[in-house]
Amino acid sequence: MKVTLSVIKADVGSIAGHHSVVQRQLDVARSSLARAKGRDVINDFHVTAVGDDLQLIMVHNRGVESRAIHDLAWKTFKEVTDKVSKPLKLYAAGQDLLSDAFSGNLKGMGPGYAEAEFEERQSEPVVVFMADKTEPGAWNWILYKIYADPLSTAGLVIDPKLRKGFTFRVLDMEEDEYVDLHAPEEAYDILALIGTTGKYAVQSVWRRSDGEVAAVSSTSRLSLIAGRYVGKDDPVMFARAQAGFPALGELTDPFAFPHLVAGWMRGSHIGPLMPVGIKDAKCTRFDGPPRVAALGFQITDGKLVGPVDVFDDPAFDNARREANTIADYLRRHGPIMPARLGPQEMEYTSLSEVLKSLKHRMKKPS
Ligand code: F6R
Ligand code: MG
Ligand code: MG
User: Fold this and answer.
1) Ligand 1 atom 4: the closest Cα is on which residue?
2) What is the spatial distance between Cα 181 and Cα 169, in angstroms, rounded to a whole number?
3) Which of 13, 36, 315, 334 has minimal CB crowding within 10 Å?
4) Which ligand is nearest to the CA of 18?
5) CA distances in angstroms from 282 to 48, 213, 290, listed in the order given
6) Residue 234 CA to ligand 2 centre (angstroms)
7) Over the range 254-271, which residues count as b (16 or more CB within 10 Å of their CB) and which as e?
């Protein structure tokens, strides 16, 4: 049976600043999706939050980019905004709902989404990764490690089903165009693009032996949609695990290194991506450090079994410790590059207003 997994997220307001959602927001979202399940729009769902981002994890049989599913997510975010975020005057209520005129598809509307349709295997483990205070390019290093680095994913060497490698669909988020590149032989080309994390993001990955989808990520950039800074994109990504795909532990192992990502305070800094359990998925110190949480499920007969909270595990204690050490080190730089992002990325932030206000005081040396 073919199933579609849709993970759709938005920041529609949070408590005490850009921090975390409140229980009533989760409740309203859950009851909206429960009604949709009752109407057979979706088969099953799980609602959670990572920091200030509300996450709708849904399984259904409607394929990707389905009008019914995008409409459901949009209406759910709207309802949470109108029933909870606005009456409670939560901070940045409705922030990611960038337009009033929803036309049936979330592309360019603000919410981020990752979706894939696939034949449910005899046993179908999946892991959903959700980040706060960073951008889609944050997955680039992770996805390369998982699907192209045999020093990280042992299955690329040991398992005949993985040895043919994976195809990376790399999206140019500025030009809205993509290229499909094949690992291992085009590994250098993949890295040539995805090293520029603000422009290129890995949109999806397929297994080359049979074209089965392995992983999908959300690639919307709020600043490119709105033309100004409206919070970081806080991307999601999911991956199918085991039996010819990387094992759960091969999906998670790269996160043991808290690599540097763009985002953190005012979306203007680099910071370490810290893997945490859902209970710690809230950005406090300097609005960070950027976090990633992961929930594992089985998709069984088109429904969700789970979740398990994957990074709620002492095996990631060292990563968290290292992330905090890196955060200490980076914070000592203040707003000085490269701890603060470069001029191109800062263009969309309020720094451009500050620079404009100083322009008329600039003098040519006599
Ligand atoms: C980062 C983020 C926050 C805000 C910061 C200032 O994605 O959303 O770091 O940029 O808290 O927010 P305002 O300008 O709303 O006070
Ligand atoms: Mg926010
Ligand atoms: Mg957020």
Assistant:
1) 266
2) 6
3) 334
4) 2
5) 12, 31, 9
6) 9
7) bbebbbbbbbbbbbbbbb
327 vs 142: CA distance, rounded Å: 19
Where are the chain's structural domains? 2-334
Contact 17, 23 (CB under 8 A): no
Whether residue 60 contacts residue 36, with contact meaning beta carbons closer than 8 Å, is answered with no
> 161 catalytic, yes or no?
no
Q: List beta partners, residue 204.
A: 169, 216
pLDDT tens track for 133-164? 999 999 999 999 999 999 999 999 999 999 99
Task: Take residue 154 and report the two structure tokens written for it.
Answer: 């042992």
pLDDT, tens digit, 9 for 90 and up, residues 68-118: 999 999 999 999 999 999 999 999 999 999 887 888 899 888 999 999 999
Which residue reads 């540097």 in tokens?
260
133 lines ligand 1 (CB under 6 A): yes
Torsion angle, CA of 130/195/108/227, rounded to 10 degrees? 110
Q: What is the three-state SS of 31-83?
A: HHHHHHHHCCCCCEEEEEEECCEEEEEEEECCCCCCHHHHHHHHHHHHHHHHH
Residue whose Cα lies nearest atom 12 of ligand 1: it is 266
CA 82 to chain centre: 25
pLDDT reported for residue 366: 85
Ligand 1 close to Cβ of residue 269 (< 6 A): no
Residue of 11, 53, 132, 287 with catalytic role: 11
